[in-house]
Amino acid sequence: MIRRYIFHATILAITIMFGSAANAHLCMLKNGSYTLTDAAVCDSGAGTTPKQVEFFATDSEIALDVVFQQDGTTKKTLDAYQSKIQFDPAMGNPASCNCHDARSAKTSPPPGDLCDSDSPSSVCGSYPVIWNDISSSLTVGLVDDFITVEGGNYYAKVVQGTLGKSTANTNLLMQSLVFKNIYSSETTAAYTFAFDSFTNLFDGNFCELLTEACGCAMQHKGISTIINISKVPCFTRQPAVSSLTCQGRAGTCASDTDGTPADISMAFTLPTGCVTTLGGSTPYTPCEGIKVKITPAAGGAAVERTASPYTAETTLNDTYVSYNVAGASTSCLDSNPVTTSSVKCRCGDPPVVVMQELKKPFIENGAINVKFNVTDPEGGGITQLKFYYTNDPGSARISNTLTQLNLISSLLPNGDVTATIPGTAVKSGTDIYFAIVAQSSMGLETSFPAEFDPEDAESIYINEDGMISGDDIIKGTHFYFVDGNHPYPSSFPFRAGGDLVLKVFFQLNDTADVSARIYSLDGRLIRHLDSSTVSLSSCSASQPQYCNMCNWQEGCVWDGTTYEGGNRYVANGMYIFNIYAVCKGSNFGGSTLDYTKGIVVMK
After folding, report:
1. Is the C-alpha dihedral spanning 152, 156, 161, 167 positive or negative?
2. What H or E segment, with its residue span, contains residue 397?
3. Strands 467-468, 352-355: pairing kind
4. What would the CATH number be for the domain defined by 488-601?
5. Cα–Cα distance between 266 and 312 in angstroms, integer?
6. How far apart are CA 551 and CA 433, in angstroms?
7. Arch. (CATH architecture) of 25-230
8. Which residue, of 179, 212, 435, 560, is most buried by count of CB atoms within 10 Å of its CB?
9. Could you tell me the fold of the domain covering 235-344?
């Protein structure tokens, strides 16, 4: 193979694909507007008609690819290439600077720093730029000074004495040239780019394809390209933003200003297509490559996304975030941006857990109801609620396990929730330890007691706020009232009438069905109070149905009415209050209690 060296300026070089039957040519095409494997990518004819390419007035660059179209019959490999293309000096910097391969990517701006050790070594500050797509695969050695001035005309002069190795015998991307777009309005035939006679293509036998047939059916042609500037015909529709949050990390942040990481999340909906006018409704097709461009409202680089959500990270430092979100596509211009509201990045307030006071004593083998009120000050709601307990400190410390109850389904709208420790865990003389953990929709957690960590079972023993002392769990010798909790009235005498009620407080030492009968002194039944599991505190003017009942743990309540109901209250006098209970618990099951007490009614 003959190899010779031609020295001048720089090159881009080649992408390898397969072509099919067509005449062979060299042309300049708009970057992204063609398919390299097309057999007639440049021209299906003799190559004498200039190419027409369209750019928009809003385009910042004129990006052209120099493409080699193979002969349909005689495939050629290339060993050397040089080109010379005149351009308007307003499209780029003057001579004596280097821009070849200066970008990290085609979409990046020229770096504006030193290019290499050759002279001159300065990179052009803006345009033009030459891009060598696969120099590494062809080991193309580039040379400097590709911009030259000859007779007052400016040229992008690309020279490669020899490629590092022969190319494939396919259609080839020879180089990419990027110029500044200097046209701001519609212009027909704004500029014509043409190959100067200096341009050469050399095959493996060093035959020059643009001046000789070199064994092909016809001689290759260098085809000029006419640039037309048009108005932009379409715009991408606006996207929709459904939510923007900025949340400190649970377990990490302590305040809104502690400098810890915060996670930003924005949910959005992609544009639904393109339209013919900005903000209009008339559809435009094709509309391809739909995406959004997200830019911080405070300034910064745009980020493109093709799927929701957009996520980012910032820090908690009294930080606010807001974004401009524009619809974008590869077919049309961007939409006007949608500006989100300004959102403060917050650590947030965790759930509030308040435990109601436990009523002592407790009965062995009797279930214990532990009542809490759990609310989310952030308003998002409680999403997880778990109750833990153990009555076996030794086992829990060894196995690091606790009995766990999921209470989220039991949480009432007002935040009240009851955790029930079963009677099998309630033993006289044995302490019971318990804790509750609530998590909000923001992922913030609260434990009660505060020291409790569900990952560390032993932490349940730290704070006695979560302990039921075994000394408060009693076991009697027979079914009766708990010591110190014998029946006693809330008022004596009882002034029946209006919203006043009489509560006779007591507590039995085992689970029971308990009722009461109220008699006059002559033995006439005045009122019967049924057994219930509802708390006496439920009795109120708005809930009168709970004002005539008994509960084995709390006692009985009576509103002073007779069987006639309504506002018919008993008369002044002495009455007999008879309490009757049937034990249903495991300690004294089947035992009964019959207790009578006198009460006085005085209006």
Report:
1. negative
2. helix 393-399
3. unpaired
4. 2.60.40
5. 9
6. 26
7. Sandwich (2.60)
8. 435
9. Immunoglobulin-like (2.60.40)
One-letter amino acid of 15: T
Residues linked to residue 268 through DSSP beta bridges, in sequence order: 241
Mean pLDDT in order along the chain per 10 residues (603 residues):
29 30 80 88 88 86 89 84 86 59 52 50 60 43 61 77 72 84 89 90 87 85 92 88 88 85 95 91 91 92 94 94 95 92 88 90 84 90 93 63 90 94 87 93 86 88 89 82 86 84 91 94 92 91 91 92 75 93 87 92 83
Which residues, at least 6 apart from 353, have a Cβ–Cβ distance to it below 8 Å?
Answer: 372, 373, 374, 436, 438, 446, 447, 448
Q: Is the peptide bond before 544 cis (omega within 30 degrees of 0)?
A: no
**Radius of gyration over every alpha carbon of the chain, rounded to an integer in angstroms:** 44
Q: What is the pLDDT of residue 130?
A: 65
CB 389, CB 467: distance < 8 Å: no
Query: Looking at the chain, which residues constitute the CATH 2.60.40.10 domain(s)?
Result: 352-474
| Secondary structure percentages of the chain, helix, strand, coil, to 5 | 5, 40, 55
CA separation (Å) from 20 to 30, 74, 170, 173, 201?
A: 21, 10, 9, 16, 20
Residue whose entry in the numeric block shows the structure tokens 């052209």: 64
| Continuous segment of H or E residues that includes residue 263 | strand 261-269
Amino acid at 286: P
Closest to 361 (Cα-Cα) out of 472, 502, 481: 472
Classify each residue of 339-351 as buried b or exposed e, where b means 16 or more C-beta atoms within 10 Å of its C-beta.
Answer: ebeebebbbbebb
Q: What's the 3-state SS for 418-436?
A: EEEECHHHCCCCCCEEEEE
Phi and psi at 178, nearest 5°, equal -120, 120
Residue 61 has φ and ψ, to the nearest 5°, of -130, 155
Contact 70, 170 (CB under 8 A): yes
What's the CA gap between 319 and 155, in Å, rounded?
52
Q: Which two tokens stand for residue 438?
A: 């609530």
How many angstroms separate the most distant Cα atoms in the chain? 137
Q: Parallel, antiparallel, or unpaired for β 323-328 and 338-339?
A: antiparallel
* Tokens at 130, concatenated: 């030459």
pLDDT of residue 122: 54
Q: Reduce the DSSP state of residue 396 to 3 states and report it.
A: helix
| Token pair for 466 | 């979560």
Phi, psi angle pair for 461, to nearest 5°: -90, -5
| Bridge partners of residue 394, in order along the sequence | none
Q: How far apart are CA 2 and CA 71, in angstroms?
A: 22
User: What's the pLDDT at 306?
Assistant: 96
Q: Which CATH class is domain 352-474?
A: mainly beta
Phi, then psi, of 470 in degrees rounded to 5: -60, -20
Sole residue written with tokens 């077919």 = 331
